[in-house]
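Dear H.,

Thanks for agreeing to be a second pair of eyes. The structure we're designing against is below in token form, covering all 250 positions.
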């Protein structure tokens, strides 16, 4: 009799453990979906403060075969769901870009199964580059500051569009070879730059350019970057945030 009871107990225990492990491997998600792969990381990180154009990146631990299902499992919201579009940078990483901008001064929650992160947006910092007027305006909390600027020369034009600040660097080396210009070319260069904000992975930055101060406000002479005086570039560097939108236009 004792052996029978022990057998029944072990059978029930195995069954309960099986249900438990099955539940953690395919956790129920918001929207009545299930994960295809465990989540390795979510960005922005918990507690981070970012600009209103910052994308959300979800990296899964293993390859995702059903991308549509994975996208449905990702819930991004403030007090209500937010709209945006997904792009996949690899078979494991999905990047969500908001439609328009995220609300300013808001707490954004991202949920994927049991994985959660909450980050905040700032008060709203917006950059506007007018390539025809050779100016750059940074608006902070509704207050604009306009400064002289220089953009890409005709042979190396600055792209038009709206770009979130991708990263900031107090010091950076600009090497023309990274944009396809050999050092042997008359246009070749290696320059130690300061107070830089990356706008594209192709090499477009906002940065200090003491060598073009006389042209700033008057002519576009750069190789595609947005040139500012050292004083203005330093102020922008300490004011702008990763994720803040910068719109460049003619």
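And this is the sequence the design step returned. I haven't edited it by hand at all.
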């Amino acid at each position: 009799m004792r052996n029978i009871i022990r057998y029944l107990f072990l059978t029930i225990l195995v069954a309960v453990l099986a249900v438990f492990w099955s539940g953690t491997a395919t956790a129920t998600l918001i929207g009545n979906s299930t994960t295809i792969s465990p989540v390795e990381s979510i960005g922005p990180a918990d507690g981070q403060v970012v600009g209103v154009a910052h994308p959300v990146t979800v990296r899964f631990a293993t390859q995702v075969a059903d991308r549509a299902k994975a996208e449905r499992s990702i819930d991004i919201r403030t007090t209500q769901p937010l709209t945006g579009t997904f792009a996949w940078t690899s078979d494991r990483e999905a990047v969500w870009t908001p439609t328009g901008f995220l609300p300013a001064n808001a707490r954004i929650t991202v949920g994927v199964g049991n994985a959660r992160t909450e980050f905040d947006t700032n008060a709203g910092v917006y950059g506007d580059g007018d390539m025809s007027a050779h100016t750059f305006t940074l608006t902070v909390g509704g207050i604009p500051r306009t400064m002289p600027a220089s953009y890409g020369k005709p042979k190396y034009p600055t792209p038009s569009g709206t770009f979130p600040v991708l990263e900031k660097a107090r010091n950076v080396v600009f090497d023309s070879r990274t944009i396809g210009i050999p050092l042997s070319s008359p246009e070749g260069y290696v320059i130690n730059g300061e107070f830089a904000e990356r706008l594209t992975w192709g090499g477009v930055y906002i940065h200090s350019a003491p060598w073009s101060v006389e042209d700033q406000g008057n002519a576009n002479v750069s190789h595609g970057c947005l040139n500012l005086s050292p004083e203005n570039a330093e102020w922008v560097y300490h004011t702008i945030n990763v994720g803040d939108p910068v719109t460049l236009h003619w």
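Two observations from my side: Confidence is low (pLDDT under 50) at residues 3-35. Residues 2-25 form the longest helix (24 residues).

Warmly,
E.
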